[in-house]
Amino acid sequence: MPFTAADVPDQSGKCFIVTGANTGIGFEAAKVLAGKGAKVLLACRDKAKAQDAIGRIGHGDVGHLPLDLADLASVRRAAEIAAEEPRIDVLLNNAGVMFPPLTRTVQGFELQWGVNHLGTFALTALLLPKLAQTAGSRVVVTASLAHNRGNIQWDDLNAEKGYSRAARYSDSKLANMLHFAELDRRLRAAGSPVTAIGCHPGVAATELMRHAGPFQIFTPLFGLLLNTAAAGAWPALQAACDSAAKPGGYYGPQGMGEMRGRSGDAKRSKLAQDQALARRLWDLSVEMTGIDPGLAPA
Fold this sequence. Notes:
Number of strands: 8
CATH architecture: 3-Layer(aba) Sandwich
Oligomer: single chain
Helix content: 25-40%
CATH class: Alpha Beta
Number of helices: 9
Order of helices and strands: EHEHEHEHEHEHHHEEH
Largest sheet: 8 strands, mixed
């Protein structure tokens, strides 16, 4: 059945971590979850922006979890802090960067690869033991329609030979697709109570577009023609809260081209379904981050 924020059931007693939740889709998801009774931790870099977001949400049990996905040391600290919570029901990996000029993370990775995939992989891996303490817990990974154009440049992951903003973004989103699918297969094989689910927001007007150059002039039209940030959060909310959401499932808008509308089953590219690529990415991610989730191949 098509899913919107109105379909989110009561979440009282549950705890959600939402990365990148001070603005855009993450903020909208956090606001809905808080309104449904959940404790919500806004995992983001800037304390002032997080406090502002908490004030704008204006209700519920909402706090700030310091997290900079561009620094693996910060990811480790955030995981240590989060592990002190009595329970974590859902890790909603929403944060990302899109089309920045060539920039590197603290550890020297190309920024989009480092934040969108490696930081997400690391945070997820570090929080799996805590998530496993709660039956029915979930990891949600936010991908993108752009994954359809992804074709990971295995011989130049750090963009030392060349850099295309759009191509690197698409590659990082394909990595998100491969990550959640492989994670769920390994969790199932291990008999874990945790499930992994993917989602994408369609095309929404958010701060993610801030590096999009001239294209930004069209973003005011997105609420009319494509998706609002609030509607873009529906697939994430479905992946996080819908009792009918399938382990390893992938959710996105059901309107034209999956760009807007109520959430439901979404389509995956052929590469996103390649299990050999997913295993290769998993092993490489462990090597690059130095963090091993400890899950055997399915």
